[in-house]
Design a protein that fits this description.
The structure is a single chain. By secondary structure, this protein is mainly beta. It has strands spanning about 5, 10, 20-25, 35-40, 45-50, 55-60, 65-70, 75-80, 90-105, 105-115, 115-120. The strands form two sheets. Strands 2, 4, 5, 6, 9, 10 and 11 form a seven-stranded mixed beta sheet that branches. The chain is elongated and about 55 Å long.
């Protein structure tokens, strides 16, 4: 049974840093695109950062220069380094492991989700 677990959340002061981890017990983890999402109270689920199986990274504009996504496939783990945190970064952060594959001419998608980790930015 595949399992995705986020960790590293907590209370941090504005301007501080923290590092989130997303560890997945998935066969072939290195073939998955991993995405970090967040959801703040009263707001929509928001895609924050993506790292592909080849290591390409993407960020939404509001976190560029402050968030860094990276992966260690030997540990089946993706990290989200958050620097210069702002109060608006307060949210539940969750990760998604996604893979698209073809079998007998048909395309399939596989998705696994974690339950999330709370990040609270407050002085």
């Amino acid at each position: 049974q595949a399992h995705v677990q986020e960790s590293g959340g907590g209370l941090v002061q504005p301007g501080g840093s923290l590092k989130l981890s997303c560890t997945a017990s998935i066969n072939g983890f290195s073939n998955y695109t991993i995405r970090w999402y967040r959801q703040a109270p009263g707001k929509e689920h928001e895609l924050v950062a993506t790292i592909t199986s080849t290591g390409s990274t993407y960020y939404i504009d509001s976190v560029k220069g402050r968030f860094t996504i990276s992966r260690d496939d030997a540990k089946n783990t993706v990290y989200l380094q958050i620097d210069s945190v702002k109060p608006e970064d307060t949210a539940v952060y969750s990760c998604n492991a996604h893979k698209t594959y073809t079998r007998q001419g048909a395309q399939y998608e596989t998705d696994y989700w974690g339950r999330g980790t709370q990040v609270t930015v407050s002085s």
